[in-house]
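Re: Re: token formats

Sure, here are both.
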Amino acid sequence: MLSYPAPIKKTKIIATLGPSSSSYETIKEMVRAGADGFRINFSYGSPHEWSRLARLVLEVEEELEIILSLVGDLQGPNPRIGFLSEPMCLKRGELVELALADSQESVGEKKVVPVPLKSFFEVTERGDVIIMADGQTILEVLEREDHTITARVVEPGCIRSRNSVGIRGKVIPMPRVTEKDLSDIEFAVQHEFSHLMVSYVESAEHVSEIREILSKRGKQDISVIAKIESRKGVERVDSIITEARGVVVARGDLGKHFSLEEIPSIQKSIASKLRAKGKIAVLATQLLTSMLNSPTPTRSEVADIYNAVLEGFDALMLTNETAIGRYPIDAVKWLSRVIVEAERHYTRREELLPEPKGIPERFVLGLVKLALSLNAKLLVFSFTGRTAELVAQYRPTRVYFVGTPSASVARRVKMLWGSVPLIVEAQDYRSGIDLTRKKLLETGMVTSGEVLIEAYSVTGDREYLIRIYRCA
């Protein structure tokens, strides 16, 4: 039995599944390397393939007796290119044509990129900069005629079916929640997903709409994570944070709307706002891009990850590195290595944490401080996961344990900073605490002589309990 992934870390790793990581063994080895959850990007593949991947994650979870977050990523109002029969590599200076079409048509040696979105062509003008594949490929528009664009390659790269496409500084009109999103939400509801990421969120109303859809399906417990990928999203991030359970800082798409030198300050600012509100902060895109083709990262990538940990991100998300890269397991291993090293130098700064407003917040802040003063491990039992969420936002210096009888709550808790969820069959809080402690001792996560701070709070704020327990 694997107690929890080695090495032990508080910052979580989300790995995106794709062609390079679609086998049972690869998923299992990524968990052993330190992956805490897996993302399925609904912009690629089919429900049949997503179902297979979700099933594999749950099977690995069962074999290793460990909890894994399962994250669905809605395409949202995110413009993408159509279907390509094979990857298209574009060289600097060559001409390429973009055409209104669902898929690539044979036109001799001419390179044609299908874009199945009429409004994309309506807003494009000569001189515009088109950015594809999370900012890795850049084109300059030379001509536009109705539904055809001729462009020159400024930054070369290889593009694939369903890669993102955008126009720097422009918004391409699209409905907020698409028919595809509705279908994909239904899929997530039926396949035990713990989190839903919502792409191109530019308003709090967008998040509210997704939450309402989930609520009507009886799945209001699925955590909604808003992806900030545009100028409007950044400008309205404060109101978006209020509605969402967390936010993804999607640096690749932000590069379509901001100059590169602006991205680090945007990243740091959003992370700070999320910490102050006690919300989940996720950093994504190009963490280990060099590892698409190399078994080791660059020094600048290591420094980037190190700084993200010190900025207080709850989770770091690998995208292409594990979905289509040649070294998905190595990418997770390296990310784990850097996180562990960075956390050795992480300083808990109370002035950056949320101000406790009521009894629940003050109770949990007291727990964290008590555990710190006694150098004890913290154990909480929760039916809903709310107490675990509060613990995470006050940043205990050691990992903390969360007992719950609900698999869905455990998977949701798994993404929280520092959490180690365990499923225990308990009908009440007191037996839940006892059974969780027993499981910790059986698995070796807690040993004889160690001190535990045990706690729970009853839903409705009727009862709070703290117990100091020395394990025999």
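Second one below.
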Amino acid sequence: MHRNRKAKIIATLGPASAEHETIQRLFHAGADVFRLNFSHGTREAHRGYFEKIRAVERQVNRPVGILLDLQGPRIRLGEIEDGAIRVEEGQLVRFELEAGVGNQQRVPVPFAEFFAALKKQMFILADDGRVRLQVEACAADFAEARVVRGQGVLATRRCLSIESGNLQFTAFTEKDRVDLEYGLELGIDWVALPYVQKPQDLVELKRIVAKRARVIAKIDSRASLANLDAIISACDAVMIARGDLGFDTEPEDLPGIQKQVVRAARKVGNPVIVATQLLDSMAVSPVPSRAEASDVAAAIYDGADALMLTTETAAGKQPVAAVQAMSKIIERTESTSHFHEVLSVSHPTSWVTKADAVGAAAQNIADRLDAAAIVAYTSSGSSAFSMARERPKKPIVGITPSAAAARQLALVWGVHAVHCPEATDELKMTELACRIASEQHFARRGESIVISAGVPFGKAGSTNLLRIAEVE
């Protein structure tokens, strides 16, 4: 089976999607990658999710990616009685460093750096920015702040942010270190780090990962935007975390920021993920709003590799319906007559590597010959990444002897990943490419395919071969 779309879907797992049957239905509905959010749940629960995903992978006989999303140094509320309290405009809220279980009288924030950074008249944002509070009094272990705008909930483990605040802490915490080692031992494919403010924030994480997974930097603050190009160059992919960005920027700035980040990532060939509130109403509604459908379509026109569902699939009432809706919107958007015309306007013109040049040539040849598909034989996945950078009209079949690379490619725009035997010479590689293109229903007998590979075979990052073959 293969999808009828190029952009990929990431589904976050949680209480609403914890069962094996639900995960299987999410895959068939369109989920290409599953996200394990280590800000919530126990490590044992995430191990359960991991094992169920791999069981589904074996059943469907398709590579399925798994993304570990680290918590990072986020300011999160502690445990609150009955899960949440509601706050209204004008209400005074007391935050405490050591407050036990919170209630209407006191709200726990077990994060000393939060209180250290506060000053009178500063603003605190809560409930995804719906609630704005102004600090009236504060010390090292408490703060009193009044709701000056909006109404909403303060819920267990939900994030707080200091508006335009400059919190000084490391992006990679001790909890992240333990969670990362745990995930790498399981065999995760991608790892995302939040609150990356500069490329140096990724150094320790990449040292531990040691190429056992690919690294995603989350763009979620003004600081990360200020160092955007350097951060993109230091990682394998980026995620536009619009929820956290919304804490640090104005709503009217987000559409432009989204385009800026997508274009910067595409320029160097790094996948880019758009996340947060894409189909937010589907946490409770069976259908998306018109505005949400337009938001999804806008991200696709921007050229995003993947879109991520969070609450919709982790805690929503109809997680499968949310994936189905997103898949349909993407398919319909990509089928419009002007889709590739819009993508070409924002296409990066410079070639970053030799592999990028080969990718551009492969697209050109495939279009001129009306080839059935472009096949990238790749040890590490880099050839397929370069093909995806070009956003070709023809399908990309990424074939690799590495199961890990095949799973990583599940996130990349337009790539249909296939785990295959290793080829030892050009003839065997060509025969393998033709056979897989036929078996996967991308090419029929007599049709041409364009093949890229690297010589010598098995050497990662050596893309230097381009050839045309006819399927027999």
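The domain at 354-470 is CATH 3.40.1380.20 (Pyruvate Kinase; Chain: A, domain 1). Residues 43-60 form the longest helix (18 residues).
- S.
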